[in-house]
Design a protein that fits this description.
Layout: H1 2-31, H2 35-56, H3 67-87, H4 91-104, H5 109-119
Helix pairs in contact: 1-2, 1-3, 1-4, 3-4, 3-5
């Protein structure tokens, strides 16, 4: 049973990471004022976040952050993705995304509220 729960948790974490990239892409395509800027932000922002993730957050990365710095960067990247959803008018998706993220990471509720408040 424990192995099944661990597998489910890893799958949810992976889906959250993909959803984060989609949120950044949606923000980029929405916020750009010209077609070129929409394409650059809509494609470039998720690529930049994926590169940051692969260097500092990936489990097999040689430069993987540890402890608090890992947690700070993770909350910052996901918090900005939540803010991106809210900025493009997807408040409900932003709240659901935040609830799933903070629940999946057993984040203390006061930290979750602070990140949500800063996003709005």
């Amino acid at each position: 049973m424990t192995a099944l729960l661990k597998s489910i948790n890893l799958a949810v974490a992976f889906l959250l990471e993909l959803a984060m990239l989609v949120a950044y892409a949606g923000w980029g395509f929405h916020i750009g004022t010209t077609t070129l800027l929409k394409i650059l932000l809509g494609i470039g922002t998720p690529i930049l976040v994926a590169v940051i993730w692969s260097i500092f957050m990936a489990p097999r990365s040689q430069k993987r952050l540890q402890g608090r710095t890992y947690l700070i960067l993770k909350v910052a990247l996901f918090g900005l993705a939540i803010a991106a959803l809210i900025v493009v008018g997807e408040l409900a998706y932003g709240i659901v995304f935040a609830v799933v993220f903070f629940d999946q990471h057993n984040t203390p509720i006061h930290l979750a509220i602070v990140v949500l408040a800063l996003s709005i």
